[in-house]
Amino acid sequence: MLRESAGARGVRVLIVDDSNFAKRMIAKHLSADQGIEIIGYASDGRDAIEKVRSLNPDVVTLDLQMPGMDGLTALRHIMAECPVPVVVVSSHAGQDAQPTIEALELGAVDFFLKPSPANPVGVDGTGTNLAQKVKQAAKIPRPRLGYIARRVSGTPAVGRGKPRAARDLNRVVVIGASTGGPRALCAVVPVLPADIPAAILIVQHMPPEFTGSLAKRLGDMSQIAVREARTGDSIQRGLGLVAPGGFHMVVTGDGDIGLNQDPLVCNVRPSVDVTMQSVTRAYGARCLGVVLTGMGSDGSDGAAAIKAAGGGVVVEAESTCTVYGMPKSVVDAGNADKIVPLHEMAEEIVRMCAME
Hints:
This protein is α/β, with parallel strands linked by helices and 356 residues long. The chain has 13 helices and 14 strands.
């Protein structure tokens, strides 16, 4: 007998949290949406694993810091044994955001800041509320959750290259991602060689509290240098710069980074389109656009600008995307030069960057 789809009968959600207050607030918010049904609660990792097996929820909201088995350990078991879309509801932000970044790398599809008396559940830094994230997560095909991208060690890279002057550049690469992006970035950026003849600009849709930790995680894993961008940074070969949450990242005609809080584009800030368009104006045909997994169409207009300037565009294949939205918008517009699965993406970037 075919299982009824989540969209036809509402999204069945298991809430995992050791805080009774958090459980009440999450349940109150989700239950206000008639398309969501709360089917159970768990208070620690072991309980969560058992209830995922017995209740077969469409989506799990997962706390990370719990007594006994914590959320990260439970997530590893869930993704290995009974993959289900997981939305992390985390209290970790700022310098303490690393566990959330690790959870996204392990396979959680999205995250939301945990409610507290001072911060009731509302919307996050991308303008999306928890119910919307849960419903989007429920649409992700289960087979994609079991996809294991080629991974590299999380230990600091050995023999990391030093950034070099912009005159040594063959390409300026703009990588854009949204839902599922942290995991995809952790599968691509660390594989790029230290001597790649390119600068790398990374735009991930993420609230301000988390982009610094994402940049640090990528920097610790990668052969190139990676950090969060600052106003006045120079475009350099072998340097990866991550757009800070809440700011559009642009490149000036002098090859310097500018950050601004201009209006949202595609309902987000930072926007992939904004960065790609500015890089196109500064570097023309030397641009390479890379569009990874994500909801929506951000990156489509930017890819069109890169193509018009004579640059190249490569997008992630549907088979490995958590959400095939952003790449699809580029493909549908006819602006993708290459469509490759995630485990081949770094190799394709290197190949295209080597082209004169």
